[in-house]
User: Fold this.
Amino acid sequence: MKNFSKTAILLLLAMTGFYACQEVERFAISSDDTVPPGKPVLDSVHPLPGGAALFFTIPRDEDVISIEASYEGKNGTVIAAASIYADSLIVLGMSEATEQSVAFYAKDRAGNKSQIETVSFTPKEPAFLKVANSVKVKSAFAALQVEWDNELGQSINVYVNLTYNLNGAPISVRRAISSKKLFDRQFIKGLELSETEPVSVSYSIKDAYGNESETVSVGQLYVMRDVLLDKKKWVLPEPGTQVGIDTAFSAPVYQSGGTFEGPMEKVIDDIIENDGFRVVQNFAWFGGDFIVPGTSINANRNPLWNIIIDLGDYYELSRIVTHQRWMYGGVIADLDPNNRGRLYDIENVGTYEVFYLDETKTPNEWVLINQTKIPKPPEDMSDRDVIFMAARGDEAFMYPDDPKYTPKTRYFRYRPIAGFTDANNLSGLGEITLYGRKAQ
Assistant:
């Protein structure tokens, strides 16, 4: 019986080896194979933006490895391929919604192509033209705001052309913005121009296939001007002080208090804990509890914690810059790979809300201005660049959908909502800086 089992196993191995060899031979590349495979059968064509989906039945040839469609695009030959296990392929990158043609064929392992069939169809409007039709350019504070829809999520480049005079000299600038987000909003910052200096604006959209839209003129826009608020005039109410009512929670708002190594005044002392070149211990930390004297109210959980700033006068606010807590000492040359996580993860605020106090109401009410989510750096950004990105701080407009000033207010409130990766881990903040103008 034992010998029989050995014999059966040897026969099974031999048969397995035989069929394996047959399978290898079936798909082996033969230098003398010049026989083209049969052509695929086109079943249907479904137009897509800038292309089409081709549905097919593969030929019976055993050595067919792919079904392909190709055409000549702006950047050269575009080839779309599908394996023999698929029943369709998608070809994209066409520049117009007019009749287009592709070469449709099968290819075997030796590289032989089947008889080529010309397939004609009319694509829908391509993605880059759809994006071009959705672009909006708006005036912002020392900047221009550019936003667009990209419903297909294809990679596109937005080219924005600016022409203006700076100190009497003509300036021409071309900015390129790359994106594949379904909706994106970017800012062209650093336009230190007066509110009366016009900026001529135009744009075009280019896709990954080399197609580019016509240049669209926006006309002349004017940047909005604001000023950096003087922090020397700012006052922080004592921790535990009640200022106003939060109507969303039907509860009074209390000034939070730092109970450990990070007192609250550190966020308005104009010292950036990490400015990209040096690191100093200078942050606010609200990881502990602060009980309002004479009550059981935890001012650091009310809800979460709040920084209330008396601006010293009435202002209309335009934008805010926030800096994260830098957790460890050292100089920029001593950075290690963990710094990325320290800055955009552990204990730092990733999402926050800002409010102004409406003193026309009795009791005074906090009015929500906006909620901001600080963008995390791209995964491929170097640790050193992450440090400099954080050192510059995150700038946000009070009203990003339509940049403008807030109603006048003397009191400003900053309320954390969530950390970068842990909604409940958001106890550190480096600095708050505000821009605006004095209320009339």
Notes: Residues 1-27 have pLDDT under 50 and may be disordered. The helical segments are 2-27, 127-134, 339-343, 383-392.
